[in-house]
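May I ask for a protein sequence together with how it folds?
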Amino acid sequence: MPAPYFALPPTDRVRSPLTGWTRAHWETLADRQLDALLPYATPGFAQYRLPGRASWSGIVSDGLEGFARTFLLASFRIAGAGGTDGPDDPSPSAISHLIERYTQGLTTGTDRDSTEAWPELTDCSQQMVEAASIAIGLHETRPWIWDRLDSRVQERVVDWFSGFVAKRTWDNNWRLFQVVSEQFLASVGAPYSQSDIDGGLDRIEDWYIGDGWYSDGDGRNFDYYIGWAMHLYPLLWARMAGEGGDGGRAEVYRERLAQFLAPYPQFFGGDGAPVHQGRSLTYRFAATAPVWLGALTDCTPLAPGLTRRLASGTARHFVERGVPDERGLLPLGWYDTFLPATQPYSGPASPYWASKGFLGLLLPADHPVWTERELPLPVEQSEQYTALPAPGWLLHGTTHDGIVRLINHGSDHNPPDGPATDDPHYAKLAYSTATAPESASHAWARTVDNHIALLTPDGTPSRRRRIHPLGCEGRRASSRHDAELPGDDRAEVFPIESTSVLHGSWELRVHRVQAPAGVTVREGGHAVADTVRPHTEQGPGWALVRTEQGLTSAVVALHGWDTETGTAHEVEANAYGPHSATPYVRAADHPGGASVHVTLVALTRDTVHPEALRASIGCEVTDDGTAHITFPDGETVTV
């Protein structure tokens, strides 16, 4: 593993035997990012105009985003240090310098006559997102920034935030930006709308589906936003509202977060990587925010040593892979710059929502999460199988290679009705901590990886758009989607019902397909990526791809497939590397009507012998479409 681009403190293998990281590592990582911003600050420090692709909101909004999201990081650093410099600390990231920089930025940005003035808050504007970060930062640093502001500057800040009152937001996690921003107004004695706050908090009740899970708006929208937004903002709002000011809501939020956190460590691989699923993955460290939040609000079911091990492992994972980069910046991507992992709203400073992952700095240095010995992640202790019925996911982690896989039979990020899309970060059958979906547009057009498709004669694949969950329990989950094929007047729809069953590091997939005569059915496994072209092998009924580091993806045909197999190669399509490949199996000339297809999918760092697997796994499909599979260890599965 290459060395980070900046110096870190010495590791502590007594207190942190698994990562070596301590609070000093987190402070150093925060300081490196804050120091690196200075060359990109506008003269009055109201904006940070970072290099990279602009968002659809424009350069001024992007500059505000640079201020707001890094102020969130600075506020955790300032408050965590008690607003004072360390001994003999003359660095640009010294606490006194951070206070001065962001105080000046607030002064300049809220001056409407300044050339650096922040855009006013208007309906559904990007400024709403950034206002919430500023509100949280001001609350957490109140003794050192807000209380010391000139009264005229305080009035200007209030005037800017007041643009939120009675404004319309997008009907998803954005409702919470209004909640925390107007609660800040309330906390400083400024006019605000209680109905805006209550309305936002009441609205998220419509999206709570149980077991600690929300949907991010109407539909089945499940990803890391549930942790870093749907849980985060309500509890930070309660922190602003203060004891007795939350109307009893905080206790409900704490109970829900505790439920959410209980299985949350199982989303993280042994190398610290989070499962690569959902949008805004460029926020990286923010995936650890709900873990810190549980400790901060004293509701976590996780032991202190596990909390720190999870969070430090994730931070170290990215640092060891060049994040932040040689400039000290967070690029738009996963490791380095990779724009297909971003969205049109992502600007150069968007990755700094990673600041939420530094929430732990608000905990004092003598808190148990900083002092107790690290504990291993679940995947480091034993084989893990976890069913999450609310989002329709199965998680399975294997100790020997540290990989966690997410099997998706429930999240599609579509509205309940109307037009639907098939975003590669939601539509796939599986995701993992070691792979990413092929997300560039040229690869998305082919849609091979972790997808079952009906192919028209010209090779156009059907899509998996709206996912209808059918069950999720134990080691299996099922769903249905409607595969659309272009017709003369409108698309023809053919249902595909899919069931996944977990067995060791394998996923067994059983599909009942309705299709017209003459189409081709194709199924792909995981895409693996590397700096060099992955090695490929194939034979009768199987295909395999392997990186130089030994990460192997394989598919084995067990029933309903011809012996036709292959590998789809892509370039610059994957967040994990410029060269990627996906193994697939294919059945040509469908007779029309119903058919059953059974596939074994493997993602592992073990050696895989697909010929032996195909020969040793028994598979019988009866006339009624029931599949009976017998694994080499004798376990029998009926689907």
